[in-house]
């Protein structure tokens, strides 16, 4: 059985369960604070970090404005280099294309590089339904897969697991996926890494088909780029006879010069490194390998049409926003009901899927609006701005009738000085009867806030009294 995010509850319900898990909170706090500190140290080394950040945002914005041009340029370059380009409008079409390509090889097993796009498309489930087994080769993704779990972080999908839990997963489940874990496996990180290495080695050597995503796609040359830390990505994109890369259409950068900016931004923002250990780049079909590029829309053009929300497409999946978010630190990634957790998920998921259900409508409220996510974003996505815009869209859909009625009444009172004066006088006289908890649906507001007690005298009453007293002197 393949785990899925389908049917996840709305954020408040999922978050309420998560915050009660003390072990989860401990794991998250330790991991996010460690990554946060490492990022701050390496970013602080660059005197021109602000300029790099601005450059990254500008390149992304320019690319998105002319996305049609760069997509066609990328297609031409990949085709000229011997690759094959496929276009997918949605997840179903993308999954169907990949399944058909694997079937055409006659293989029933594939190895995969860590890929947010394939997780978004739930490709592993589609492959399994077609009788094709997908093996995740990233260490954290392997942990998630063996545990029949779901990823909870963009960079470290198994961040919610500790070493003891990982040791148990390896001991109990590795044998059903291939080479079993060594007898007497300890929870020492080196021992766990060695167990994973031995388990995956036979997969790398026997695989005929590899599936990857891409961090960037260079339109100028048709080159795809994968950044990773373990070397598994290098194995997956070079050893198989057929390579299928599934890439969101927003991953394009126009030129090699543009790529250089992101090669500085991404490692520092994601893993807290000056540069990542492995950078794999390939252009079309190389060394006799058959190469297919599947370019995926899946809601991205709808996001592109939104004046405020389109900045979410700048995202380079660094996860820096997750590591500073006080909400994510306490709830973890599963509460967001999507492969994209944290602040970026709170704006990206509702836009890609649309505000179609309770989960998507709740995500824009999964934030304190503290702004820490905007401060660390390497491409300057103003996440709080997008969150507020999405909240407005949720309210105007009509599902929050009580809130709309209250805000409508407030608008009428605040727009008329006479009504405002009456409301202030009434509130002052009735201050002793101010409820500590509001009735009905309004209780959700007062349960998380202290209802302010109205002053005995409003400002306008104080001003009028002061003017009268001075006139009497």
Automatic annotation (TrEMBL):
Pfam families: Fer4_8 (PF13183), LUD_dom (PF02589), LutB_C (PF11870). Residues 306-335 form the 4Fe-4S ferredoxin-type domain. Coiled coil: none annotated. It comes from the Bacteria. PROSITE patterns: 4FE4S_FER_1, 4FE4S_FER_2. InterPro entries: 4Fe4S_Fe-S-bd, 4Fe4S_Fe_S_CS, FTHF_cligase-like_sf, Helical_ferredxn, LUD_dom, LutB/LldF, LutB_C, NagB/RpiA_transferase-like. Keywords: 4Fe-4S, Electron transport, Iron, Iron-sulfur, Metal-binding, Repeat, Transport. This is LutB/LldF family L-lactate oxidation iron-sulfur protein. It comes from Actinoallomurus liliacearum.
């Amino acid at each position: 059985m393949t785990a899925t995010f389908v049917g996840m509850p709305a954020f408040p319900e999922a978050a309420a369960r998560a915050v009660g898990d003390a072990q989860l909170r401990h794991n998250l706090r330790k991991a996010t604070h460690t990554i946060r500190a490492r990022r701050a140290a390496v970013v602080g080394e660059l005197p021109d970090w602000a300029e790099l950040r601005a450059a990254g945002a500008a390149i992304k914005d320019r690319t998105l404005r002319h996305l049609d041009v760069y997509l066609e340029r990328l297609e031409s370059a990949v085709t000229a280099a011997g690759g094959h380009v496929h276009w997918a409008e949605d997840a179903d079409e993308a999954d169907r294309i990949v399944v058909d390509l694997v079937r055409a090889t006659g293989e029933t097993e594939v190895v995969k590089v860590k890929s947010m796009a394939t997780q978004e498309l739930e490709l592993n489930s589609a492959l399994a339904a077609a009788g094709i087994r997908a093996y995740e080769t990233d260490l954290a993704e392997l942990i998630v897969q063996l545990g029949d779990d779901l990823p909870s972080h963009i960079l470290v999908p198994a961040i919610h697991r500790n070493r003891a839990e990982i040791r148990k997963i390896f001991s109990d489940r590795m044998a059903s996926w291939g080479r079993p874990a060594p007898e007497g496996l300890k929870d020492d990180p080196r021992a766990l890494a060695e167990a994973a290495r031995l388990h995956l080695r036979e997969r790398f050597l026997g695989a005929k088909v590899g599936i990857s995503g891409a961090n960037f796609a260079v339109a100028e040359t048709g080159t795809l780029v994968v950044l990773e830390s373990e070397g598994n990505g290098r194995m997956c994109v070079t050893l198989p006879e057929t390579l299928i890369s599934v890439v969101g259409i927003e991953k394009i950068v126009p030129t090699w010069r543009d790529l250089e900016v992101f090669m500085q931004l991404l490692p520092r923002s994601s893993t807290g490194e000056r540069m990542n250990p492995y950078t794999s780049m390939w252009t079309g079909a190389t060394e006799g390998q058959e190469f297919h590029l599947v370019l995926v829309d899946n809601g991205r053009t709808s996001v592109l049409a939104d004046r405020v929300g389109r900045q979410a497409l700048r995202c380079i999946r660094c996860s820096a926003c997750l590591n500073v978010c006080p909400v994510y630190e306490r709830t973890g990634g599963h509460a967001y009901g999507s492969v994209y957790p944290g602040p970026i998920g709170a704006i990206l998921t509702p836009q890609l899927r649309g505000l179609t259900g309770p989960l998507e409508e709740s995500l824009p409220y999964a934030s304190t609006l503290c702004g820490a996510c905007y401060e660390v974003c390497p491409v300057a996505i103003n996440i709080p701005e997008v969150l507020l815009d999405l909240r407005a869209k949720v309210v105007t859909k009509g599902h929050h009738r009580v809130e709309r009625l209250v805000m409508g009444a407030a608008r009428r009172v605040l727009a008329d000085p006479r009504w405002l004066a009456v409301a202030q006088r009434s509130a002052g006289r009735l201050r002793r009867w101010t409820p500590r908890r509001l009735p009905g649906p309004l209780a959700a507001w007062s349960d998380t806030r202290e209802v302010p007690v109205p002053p005995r005298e409003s400002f306008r009453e104080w001003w009028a009294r002061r003017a009268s007293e001075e006139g009497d002197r």
